[in-house]
Amino acid sequence: MSTLKATPEKGGLGRAATSGVTWLIAQSLSARFFGFFSQLFLAALLLPADFGVIGLANTVTSVAQVLVGFGVDDVLLQRQRAMRFWSASAFWISFALGTTGMIAMIIAAPFAARAYHSSSLVGLIIILAVAMPIRTLATVPQVAIRLAMDFRFLAAYNTFEIAALQISTILLAWAGFGAYSFAIPVPVLAVIRAVLFWRKAPPKILQRFRLAQVRYMFGSSTIVFTTRIIVEFINQGDYMVLGIMATHNVVGLYYFAFRFSVQPVRMLAGNFSNVLFPALAQLRSTPEQQADAALRASRLLSYLVVPFCFLQAALAGPGLQFLFGHRWLGAIPLVQLLSIGLPFDAVSWITGSLMSARREFRRSLFFAAVSAPLFFGGVVLGAKLDGAIGVAAAVVVYYAVYPPICSILILRRGRIAIGKILELYVVPPLLSGASMGAGYGLSLLEPVSHSNFLRCVVIGIVGSAVYVGCLYVFRPDVYRDLYHRFSGMFRRVGWRSRPRPA
Description:
19 helices
């Protein structure tokens, strides 16, 4: 029997969304911890070529995973209260697509190995393919958990999965499995996810299979599916181009740098969008309130993710040299470039959720279709001009220009003043750049400059303190909002707190 509660009514929607963000921010912090230290261990245990090979394998598996989703989860989220009548059709469609995706990946494996000049890709892709139909078993239960806004369970499980994945990858790398260290844990964890999610929210899969529902899902999901395919090609496009035009070592340096740089964006922006989508969908009948909620979330996200990324860029040089000496010197400028450019994409995660909540799927497809040639054109040009550095620069330019334009167009439809939207892309980078620049500048002074460790300490402490001070002085409303929302975060996400007096 399911242990889920009913979806919160509108009166409790704000509390549920805030609680969800709190839980998933806590998950983000733990994931950041595990991901950071895992990256350090793996960088010490593996070679750049190992990172390059798994990065190229992911160009095949990530695109295939979009086929598995096919937008079925979005259709179920839109159904909300009637979901129980749709779960059987959604389950069998997802499982059939997962099986199809597995077969397609196995067939594509030798062709990918030939295109990227790496025979080891075949085994990696096959292992990752096995996990695909297994993961689809959790699709319907996960939607039910999201609709119930049980983000506490999602955060707890995702934290466990991240920790288990990172620890098992490190142990396998230490045992000498090379690039296979990244792939072997994936199907194992897919089985665990399916078992636990079914225990939490068992779907009713033996109901009568309604052909009309299948036609509706494929009809409603086709545009979402096409959009996701385009977006995933963009997500993997830089690796694809480098895989064809550069060596595995170069791809490995770029893959390492991107994984390192994108963590704050993916964890914070991804969790915000996961929490907000069901909340925004319930506000569809009040479009101005819906747009205002998206703007407030975007502001909060922007002032959180940009300083993290800018601090990361400032720490890249002394930090990587302190940890690895000269082994990963080639990744330093890549981390710096990507850390500065990627946070400009954060807000678009929320505006993308806003479009989905509005059911503007054709508009999402239009934005994705326009972005693809711009992205690939820039990346190919960058690769020809300066290899991985050129690709990183092209990615930075793309994210600094195109996603902000899309977000402006989306939020303006909700009658949001353009000045409020531009603030998201101007003020946080200015405050973050000045703050982290101050810390970086002080780290170059004597005698700190002779120790990479001391430079990291000075950059982290000074940069963070100056940023908080800048918020307090220049944006006191944002400072108060952040303080009131998250000052009690650790108390709320730890053991159950004592009840407050009425």
